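Box 3.1 A note on notation
Throughout this textbook, protein chains are presented in two layers. The first layer is the amino acid sequence; the second is a token string describing backbone geometry. Keep the layers aligned when reading.
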Amino acid sequence: MNEQQAQFLKRLVPAVLAWQQKTGLPASAVLAQAILESDWGRAALARRNRNLFGIKARPNGAGVVYSTREYAGGKPRPVRARFAVYPNYEACLDDYARLLARPRYARARAVAANPFAFVVELQRCGYATDPRYARKLALLIRRYRLTQYDSSSEARSAKESLPATDDLQST
């Protein structure tokens, strides 16, 4: 981990730990998402607009347009999308919690004690269009030992392997 990455985690971990206490969702998975979606906070959307997760703007909410990549049929394609703007990371985390509270993500919330199962279910629930999203998150969780931030002892000791990418696409 380089200095910039360490500083990003140092800034984000306290907010994510407080968020985890409120939501019961795994800090490791949220940190991995923030790392992946914001490129360790270097992406313009994160730097300028404090949007760590690529959350789209509400129809009447504040937003900014950026180019992004969406997947259709397993193939990436460039698109322009309107993303939410936040005053700080904490507001972004609060909005992310509201997003995950939707019925659509109930299966992910049900397995929140295991961050690896959580990221698989997030993908199955349609959180991201990248067919390798859950695998990328799991690799980040392992590489940077992010389960050390989880409050659940099951999460810290989880050793489950991810299903094959084909298994993720079949649901």
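The first strand starts at residue 63 and ends at 72. DSSP finds nine helices and two strands in the chain.
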